[in-house]
Amino acid sequence: MELDLHIHTNRYSGCSNIPPGEVIRSARAAGLDGIALTEHGIRWPDRDIADLLEKTGEKGFVVIAGEEVACFSSAGRFQGEFLVFGYPKSLGSSRAIEKVIELVHGEGGVVIAAHPFKPLETGSGYYGCGDAAWDLDIDGLEIEHPSYPEESRKLARKVMEDRGLCGISCSDAHDLRGIGRFRTVFEAPVRDAAALCEAVRKRLIRNNI
């Protein structure tokens, strides 16, 4: 089962130009079995997802509500962005990652480092958690991302393998052309957030594209 677990729409992410009404059609055209909507700091309401599926006539297609949370330490230092699944509320983008992990794990959810080794456009360092991926109590990380050069892929895979974490491949799509560019292949059907969290914790991933 192939899912793209990192997609933004223009309903809740101002940086995206993907209309919600087009996201499922484009995902189907890309050969995906499902997607996760991961807006910046906002979780799609379940009712809105049900309405979206009804309007598109794609009730059998999997749409999981996640969110991408930007985290900052108590001193205001940027700690990276993280994909959250299995948490029932919007988390915003102001908490420390340690607090986010505590909250999400308390609800049985998972936290995945988004593009931890995405290089900054100017200067050195990463627009992600970078080397903190070695130490944080995360459940996984993106090992394939459109912004990764080869060195970033190697670093992400090394963290995954050395720590025994789940590695996922995501498009981080902000336009229709990006949907499904990278996707994660699961060994068993993933129909909802609970099944996704279980698959991440058990690393039930057959392949990454």
State the strand order across the main sheet: 7-6-5-4-3-2-1-8-9
- Tally of contiguous helical segments: 5
Low-confidence stretches: none
Q: Report the count of strand segments.
A: 9
* Overall average residue pLDDT: 96
Alpha-carbon distance between the two ends? 12 Å
How would you characterize the overall build of this protein?
The protein has 209 residues and is of the alpha/beta class. It has one domain: Metal-dependent hydrolases (TIM Barrel). The protein has 5 helices and 9 strands; from the N terminus they run E-H-E-H-E-E-H-E-E-H-E-E-H-E. The protein has helices spanning 20-29, 46-56, 97-106, 150-163, 193-202; strands at residues 2-7, 34-40, 62-72, 78-85, 110-113, 140-144, 166-169, 184-186, 205-208. It has a 9-stranded mixed sheet with strand order 7-6-5-4-3-2-1-8-9. Helix 1 (20-29) crosses helix 2 (46-56). The radius of gyration is 16 Å and the shape is globular. The two termini are 12 Å apart. The mean pLDDT is 96.
